[in-house]
Predict the 3D structure of the following.
Amino acid sequence: MEQAARPVGDICGAADTDTERSVLRQLLTNEQHSPVAATGLDSTIVMGECTDERHPSLYGRVRVCWQQNGRQEAWLPSLHQLSIRAGDRVLIASPENALEPVVIGVVDGSRTRAPQARSGPALSLQRDESLLVCTREGQELLEVYYEESGPVLKLLNRDVDIEMDGDLRISADSIGLLARRGEAQVTASGDVVINGETVRVNCENTRPLG
């Protein structure tokens, strides 16, 4: 005898019902906890404003507010090497496969500012300590230390060349050059120009250096 066809629910049994419920529960959970859905930002690009450039603990995140379905505000990651300051207008994108929106650019036309360098690694020296730079073979090259008159940068090779492309400019309140032994030579391919209120040569009343 042929068996009567059973309803699909009876053939699949409770396993399929549990699977459907599991899939539905996962979809609802993902919709609830999706950061993109939580921020209210669709898959598009909007204009926002940075309200805080320094996250308390995470590097590369800035606090941004924007208008889309009401006022939204969140700490968002930004593209690498973006220089963002509080008050800057920024572009926010939400890729379809990303977990949260990303700050992708700064609209520089909103205001003018000078570039600001971030502080990097620092070495702290006590008054009786010095920083010594050596080659891998142990040859001493450079020493940095502090004296009462100020910081001292000491080159430890007997012969040193300072070379660079372009122009070299040295600026200070006053500049002193001292040749302890031998000559002091100035060589130029063009004119040598000395401008000063008074130019003295072989003056005995000059202040000694060193």
Notes: The CA atoms of residues 6 and 12 lie 10 Å apart. The chain is about 15% helix and 25% strand. The longest strand covers residues 45-52. The helical segments are 8-33, 35-39.
